[in-house]
Amino acid sequence: MDSFPVFYRTKTMRILLLIIWFTLKVHYVQGEPGILKTKYFDTNIKDFATKEYCIGYSSFETPLPKLAKEPEFRPLLDRTDTDLCKTPSNAAQLKGTLVAVLRGNCTFVNKGLVAQKAGANGTIVVTDSAVIAPSMNESVKIPVVLLTAEDHRDIIRKAGDNKLVQGVLYNPEVPEIDWNLLVIWLMAVGTIAIGGYWCGVTAYRQAKLQRKRERATAVQASGIQQSTCNSDSSEEEDVTEEEEESVTITPVIVLIWVCMIFAVLLLLFFFYDYVVYVVITLYCIGACNGMHQCLAPIGRKIIPWKQRLPPNKVPFLSTRPTIVSVILALGSIAFVACWFVYRHEDFAWILLDTLGICFCISILRLIRLKNFKTCFLLLGLLFIYDIFFVFITPLFTKDGKSVMVEVATGGDGAKEQIPVLLVVPRLSHSAFSVCNMYSMLGFGDILVPGLLVGYCHTFDFKVQSRKIYFISSCIAYGVGLVITFVALALMQTGQPALLYLVPCTVLTVLMIAAIRGEVAHLWHGQVKSDHHVL
User: Fold this and answer.
1) Angstrom distances, CA of residue 208 to CA of 55, 239, 309, 316, 423
2) Torsion, Cα of 201, 203, 209, 215 (10° steps)
3) Cis amide leading into 449 (omega within 30)
4) Are 525 and 459 in contact (CB under 8 A)?
5) Would you say 473 and 196 are in contact if contact means Cβ atoms under 8 Å apart?
6) 137: how many CB neighbours lie within 10 A of its CB?
7) DSSP secondary structure string, 260-298?
């Protein structure tokens, strides 16, 4: 199987990428979003139209109503010529309005008190930075919210020459369970099922080819000639390249991994604005290769053309890959470039998830765990890692925030977000959907249990169990993910997914092995020679 680019094929590069992918887990974007619903006269349709904008506010001091009722609409007064840090000379204009002002240098409390004294119904602070919840206190009785400068300009454009815009601030009820969780569940379970299945099949083919080589060597040593058909030669070529790409994980590598994962997460926490661009660069490299790895088998089936490039000295092409492989590689690069250019657009999550699924599947095919002992060590250590950085680190940080949550979401005011996760926008109407806030599942929550699923499928071939370990581990992962989502709904805060995924998958596999009397074989990854085909 031709791989592209060559740089990614080195084991050191793969391990570095995996350390970053394992760093992040599942979380929801944190914050206190609300909605500014505007009503204006649209000259195109000759009637009133509405549009909603994302705002940030403090829900503790000034909670917003759940519904945007018609009588509660108020005139939107544009006073972005002032920061309202002191009472303006024409303060009477503010009475009964939602007044939009600049951020300025004074506190939000100061702006709120000035507007409240003038009789305003609310203060909209226009900011060039990210929309966050402003710090308030009980002395301010009217809502003080943040609105982006871009949204404010859009409101002014829609107001037109008459400058007549009305608005209402509200925050609708958020459903406990959103349908986007079903989308994430299907993507995650499908990814580990495909990746784990591919891992087991590849391992089986490698072992089968290895036995053929051993028999051929024995025959050659005895002096008997043996013909080799073209199909065997083709299979040997493909499996040899897969074998060269694969990485077998040992307990020593697991320990090194976990230590480096700790270091990478802390680097992201303290130097996020710089390290995030390194992660994005590495992600683009890994995503290119992942998509190419997934498309290559499909491409060979659709276009069974094995013509290779002529001899050349062009970097990455000197190994003479097939023309089909080069075309697929260029298509993968174009897809990643498209995501990079449009990564801040509303539709970019579709591109990101497509690349993420391809990448995870390719990794699950490439990475092999030697035995269940290694699986248990890896999942156990990352189980502790996940709990520590989600639940324990808030006790040590000065603002009481989880290190994992801060890294996964980028924190307040972050311009870029770590791309190594699956994201799906809210499908039900709420402030989260208006503010383009996504539900997230980190690659680590797919790859870590997925490695166990891949080992289970490999073990199925060894004991000829009709895929009972593979199917059971996939079902256990799906159940564990459902439990994670239920915990999210009940606790309304980010959850360490491995807290639920690890017990579900590990205990299920061990229970199956105990029933079949294969715990020792499963643990060591070895079966008696008269009982296996691998």
Assistant:
1) 60, 10, 30, 31, 39
2) -130
3) no
4) yes
5) yes
6) 13
7) HHHHHHHHHHHSHHHHHHHHHHHHHHHHHHHHHHHHHHH
State both tokens at 417.
């977000």
Tens-digit pLDDT profile for residues 254-284:
898 888 888 888 888 888 888 889 889 988 9
Please give the backbone phi and psi of residue 110, each rounded to the nearest 5 degrees, phi first: -60, -45
Name residue 444's amino acid.
G
Of 386, 399, 412, 530, the active-site residue reads 386
* Contact yes or no for 37/48 (Cβ under 8 A): no
Torsion of CA 94, 95, 100, 103, to 10 degrees: 70
Q: Catalytic pick from 83, 151, 445, 460?
A: 445
pTM for the model stands at: 0.81
Nearest to 169 by CA among 99, 118, 93: 99
Side-chain-facing half-sphere of 230: CA atoms under 13 Å: 0
Reply yes or no on whether 346 is catalytic. Answer: no
Residue 422 contacts residue 184 (beta carbons within 8 Å): yes
Which helix or strand (DSSP H or E) is residue 439 part of? strand 438-442
For each of the domains in the chain, give its residue range(s) and CATH number, in order of start.
6-30+177-208+231-524 (no CATH), 58-170 (3.50.30.30)
Structure tokens at 295: 């498309």
Q: What is the DSSP string of 390-425?
A: IIIGGGTSTT---HHHHHHH--TT-SS----EEEEE
> Is position 78 annotated as part of the catalytic site?
no
Q: Is 427:285 a contact under the CB 8 Å cutoff? A: no
In contact, 462 and 534? CB cutoff 8 Å = yes
Tens digits of residue pLDDT in 349-384? 999 999 999 999 999 988 888 899 999 999 999 999
